[in-house]
Each structure stands twice: as structure tokens, then as C-alpha cells.
Amino acid sequence: MLGEKYFQLDMSYWGRSRRLVIQILCIWALVAYGLPALVMETNKMNYLGFPLGYYNCAQVIPLFYGALLLIFNHVQEGIEADQMDGKPMVEAASSAALNAVLMKVYVAYTGGFVSFVLFLGFLEAVGVPDQAIGILFVIFTLGMYAAIGIASRTSKSDDFYVAGRNVPPIFNGMATAADWMSGASFVGMAGTLYALGYDGLAYIIGWTGGYVLVSTVIAPYLRRFGSFTVPEFIASRYQGTVQLPGGKVVEVSGVARFLATIVLLSCSFTYLTAQVFSTGVIVSRFIGIQFEVAVFSGLIGVLFCSLLGGMRAVTYTQVAQYVILIIAYTVPAICMSTTQDDGFNKNNPVEFLVYGGTLQAIALREKEMVLLGLASKVTPYLEPKWRRVDFFALTFCLMVGTASLPHVLMRYFTTPSVRSARRSVTWSLGFILVLYMTAPAYAAFAKLEVYTNVIGQPLSVLPQWVFTYGKIGLTSVCGKAVISVNEAVDACAQATGGDYLLKLKDLKISKDAMVIATPEIAGLPYTIAGLVSAGGLAASLSTADGLLLAISNALSHDIYFRLIDDKASIQKRLLISRVLLVVIALMAAGTAASKPADILSMVAWAFSLAASGNFPALVLGIWWRRANAQGAIVGIICGWGLTLTYLLGTVYGGWELWGGISNVAAAVFGLPVGFAANIIVSLLTAPPPDNVLAMVDSLRDFKVTGEDLTAEELEDIKEKEEALARIQVPQVSNTGEATAEATAEVTAAEASI
Questions:
Q1: Rg of the Cα trace of the chain?
Q2: Per residue in 102-155, pLDDT tens?
Q3: Which part of the chain is CATH 1.20.1730.10?
Q4: Is 511 helix (H, G, I), strand (E, B) or coil?
Q5: pTM of the predicted model, to two decimals?
Q6: How open is the CA angle 211-214-215, to the nearest 5 degrees?
Q7: What values do phi and psi take at 242, rounded to 5?
Q8: pLDDT tens digits, residue range 160-191?
Q9: How many Å apart are CA 27 and CA 623, to the nearest integer?
Q10: Transmembrane segments in this chain: where (predicted)?
Q11: 200, 163, 444, 183: which is closest to 315 by C-alpha?
Q12: Yes or no: is domain 11-123+170-456+510-700 CATH 1.20.1730.10?
């Protein structure tokens, strides 16, 4: 019967997996856009002192994404278990052994870092100058990262490009989180929430929501393909020929590879510049050197890791950096949280449950400042200021951009299996949520401190941090960056500083200064401020590591090796990659030294460029067999080209915004054009060749992933497990050496089998 055939469910592995993805994405979209759409109505309700609408967007939605990925993994692994006919799914023995070794190493490393912070706290208590403590923090962290890079050096291409494809999911999740939580997240996120209030939550909803797309739509299939870079996948997927007017037939996969590399360069270099900029902000503040000099100084730690060990060194460094940055971000928030007493909580260290009373106090202080004449009008912190379409457009672009960033996607090339890649995405989001759940509390605590203890105070009693950050141009009083009370009095054109009360419009704080300044704003010990500087440095450098590696690998592997000299030896290719690392790093530092824009804006541009250039080609390449090379090429040119044109025109060309849509959401124009161009041109031209269709089918077929192991393969794994069981945790003097030696022993054990 026709109806029976039409309604019969496809119970194949691909059919069941596809239905699961569709169901997950429908739920994801409903929550991601439904709850923000109701924010004005739900803000009238309270939950633990929180306006419910704000709390839903700041805390509930990101947590829901994590729960959704756990459900997805559980159901998908059940589908795969059905394909195994009851046989257990076996992970690589080397990965399990490495996981145990790394767990012990990084627990010891964390204990060592906490001890170091306590020691610096002791030095502060006995009178060591603040600047000396800041310098010790910066030198210690840069030195540790450089040591790990030296200890993890490698000359093997597999280690350099994809860390040997042996990184356990939990540690790949930590490395991805560090790679992801850049200076934009660490330095800029809380500052953006401080400045924008509710509207800033678009960044949290968008960036965390993107990991649902990564896990369900893209990452497992890229891992199954097994490439080194994103452009390599696009070139392999979009093979085809075109007949030129003279009759000559040419292969166009090289054009697709070249365009994908250009997209990678455009979004990654923009993102890299933002990280180097934030490094300069932190180093200049805590060492006291000129911003331009600080920018170039911060590259030392990056280059040591990337130059010597490639992805292998970067992975181990990023795990260490995650430990530092998350301690540095949460400790000040916990310290401020324990001082809150809002009627619901008292001395509660769980910061994301405590700041509801702080939000209410901010709302009351806003009204009070207007009544006292300290502000003519205050935009409510908890209410949307943007149009709803602007909020949703930015959220959408950040979600899709997250699933398109090459330096994030390449992290999932390093896992042992497809299942590990999926689990790694979930671990990544879990580790990221630790920071993103804290950022709204961080911003609220800082907001109330400024509103209460700075606004309305005489100029003569302004706190020292106003002048400290005025020296590096991150704060201003009455329109001028001041470094003393006298300068503040002059700037505000007052005869004395004792009579004039500082008004809200008089004080400007850069969004990029908020996190590193908050410990001083809250009156916490300077050691906490130094800890925050170390965390911000870790966040910026970890992302810079990944971006530099993505750019240099694409240029050396996809351009030089694949398009220029396909006979180049591994040694020559690695040399080219390392030279490019240095050149790109210097270019990024030079660009950052010119201070082109605030950190979060630069990062948002990168997301739009990645979304419009990569997402249509990746999604259609995996999920639509009919997509061909001609469609991909035209789609990238049209989608990415339109986004770039809109960005340049509105930022530098004086263009009016189209429909009022901000340029940080530029992909809202380029992305649909990229999809439409790809689909239309693919339908108007010949279908992909048979070998490409076979490759697409293999990406969707569980049977070819290597996870249905033969008896011989199971025996090999058993032998590996026996060999690796003899590995002892190395006794070495520092974490970097321990990590490198552990990996070396695993590699040796594998090679011996």
C-alpha cells in the first residue's frame, strides 16, 4: 500500500540517527527562542529572589543545553549498541591508559597552583608590593606554558596536527573549553553583561547553544572522516570537474579548498587579534608596561607551545590553562557571593543561586539615582533594550558560528573515536558552563558595587582603581582618563573635589576592564586580582594557541602541501607551519596594538564570517548527498562575501545598518544566501561523482567507523591493554614534563604492538 510505504519509519542506523537529531534540534530551538520571547511576562514572577525571565535566560537555558546533550548521547549510543548485536563498544586502550595518567598529573598540577596562590597571599600579607605579586603571577603562568610546550615537542605529523588522535574525551573537553573561553569570554563577557544587562545574555544563549549543533550536526561526522583540517574535509567532499570554454576539463576541489582556507583565515585572524588584544590589556595592567609592548610580550608563551609541539603541546597546555582560568574566574565571584544577605541567601558560596537579591538591589538603586539627581534616566538592567529581532539575530549567528569555527571543530579530530567526539562535546559544554553560569553573577556584583560605592561619592574619595585603570585608558571620569583626584577635579571642571558628587554619566568603565577590575572594585586582596590576571592571560593564550595552529596548519597543509608542493616531506611541512606561526603571530600583534575595537565585537565578527562561509558547506556536505562542488563554491563566495561586505561597509564605510541589524549579527544576511546559492547551483549542475557519494554514505554508516571490531582487532586491543597496564605515572619535576612523558610512553607502547 502506498500509504503504508509512505508512513513506514526508516529503522536503519542513519534513519534512526537522523530522526533523533531532528527531534533534539526542535526541542533546542523551542527552548532557545521560546523562553527569551516571554522574558517581559516571566520577569514579573520571582524565583529565589530572581526575576524568572532573566534567570531563565542566564541560567536555565544553558543548563538545559547540557541536559539535552546528555540525552542525545545516551539515545545515540543506544542506537549504536543495536548495531553491535549486543557486543560491547570498545574504546582504544591507549586512550583509557592516558586518561588515568593525565588525571593524576593534573590533580597534582591543580594542587600545586593552589599552593602557589596561597604562597602569594602570604607574601601580600607580609608586605610584598602589589606589582611584584602581579609580575610573579604573569611570569609563573607564562613559564609553565612554555615548559609544557618544550616538554611536548614533536616531529610527528599526526601529533603536530591532531595530537595523535588519542586525547581522552574529558581532557579534550577541558582543552576545548580553554580554547573556547577566550579573552572575549573571560575578559569581555561579564563586562558586556555589566554594560548591557539583559541584552548581553544573547551571548551566553548563543555561544552555549552552538554546542548542541556541534554535537548533533557536525563534529561526529568530521571525526569519522578523519581529516587534519576543515578545508581538507571540504575539498574531499566537494570533488568534481568543470569544462572550461576551451574544452579543458579541470578539477575544482582545489578551488573549494582554497575558499575554505580563506574563510578560515578571515574568521581566525579576527578572533586571534582579539585574544592578543586582551593579553595586552592584562599584561600592561599587572606588569606596568606600555600596552603595545605588552601585546608583543604575550606572544612568547603562545609561540613556545605552538611552535614546538603543535596540537599535542597545545592540548596539554590548554588543559593546564583551563584549571587556572576557571579557578581565577570563580574564586572572586565566590568571595563576593559569601558577603550577600538578601533575605533568601546569607553567606552562600554558590554564586549563581545568590545574586537574585543583588539584581533587586540594582533595580532599586537605579530608581534612587534618578530621584537623587545622580542620573537623568537609567535604562533598567533587567529589561530588554534591543528589539526582539536584534536579540534573536545575534543569538542565531553566535550559535551557527560556534558550530563553524575551524579552531573549535579541529579539536574533535583529536579524539580516539566518533563516540569520544560526541562525549567530548558534552564535556566541553559542561566545563564552559562553569564560567558562563558565573558571569551574570560577576556582572551583577560589580554593578551594585559601582552604583553604591562610587556613583554619588565626592571626587575627593574616588577609589584608587579608577585611577589605576585610567592609566591604561580603561576608565574615564567626565570624559578623561584620569590618574589622580586633581585630574578628576579638573576634568569635571570643579573648584574642589569635596563638593561635587560623581554622577552616573561621569564614570565610564571599558567592558574589557570589568573582570580584571572587579576584585579591586569589591575591595578583595590584591592576590585575588593577580589571580584574575593569570586567569585572563590563560584564557587569551589558550585560544590564541588554537587559532594560530588552525591558521598555520591550513596554510601549510591545505595550501602549501595540497596545492603547491604535494611532494614536500613531513619535516619540510612542519618547518613551513612553524615559520607561518611566527609570521601570523607578529601580524596579529601588530593589528591588536592599533586597538581596532572592543574584544567582544571583534569576536562576534569572527562568528559571522565562520557561519556564513563554513556552515552551509559543512551541513549540506554531510546531510544532503546532492550538494556538489559548484554549489559549494558559489555558496561560499556569495554567503561569506555578503557578510564580509556588510561588516566592512558598516564598520569602515559609513553604511547604514540594513533593517537596523547590528554588524555583529552580519551572518543573518550571508548565511541564508550561502545556503540558497549552494542548493540552487547544485540542482542546476551535475550531481557529485560516485566516489563522493560513496564517501557521504560512509560518513552516515555505522559499519565503516571501525567500532564493530573483529576478533583480531579485539585481540590487538587486549595486547595493548596488557602493555599499557605496565606504565607507571612518571615522577618528574613539573606538570609539563609529566604530561609529555606520559604521552611518550603511550606512543611507545602502541608502536611496540
A1: 26
A2: 899 899 989 999 999 999 999 999 989 888 888 888 788 877 877 777 777 766
A3: 11-123+170-456+510-700
A4: helix
A5: 0.85
A6: 90
A7: -135, 135
A8: 777 778 889 999 999 999 888 876 678 778 88
A9: 19
A10: 20-40, 52-75, 96-120, 132-151, 171-195, 201-222, 255-274, 286-307, 319-339, 391-413, 425-445, 575-593, 599-624, 631-652, 664-686
A11: 163
A12: yes
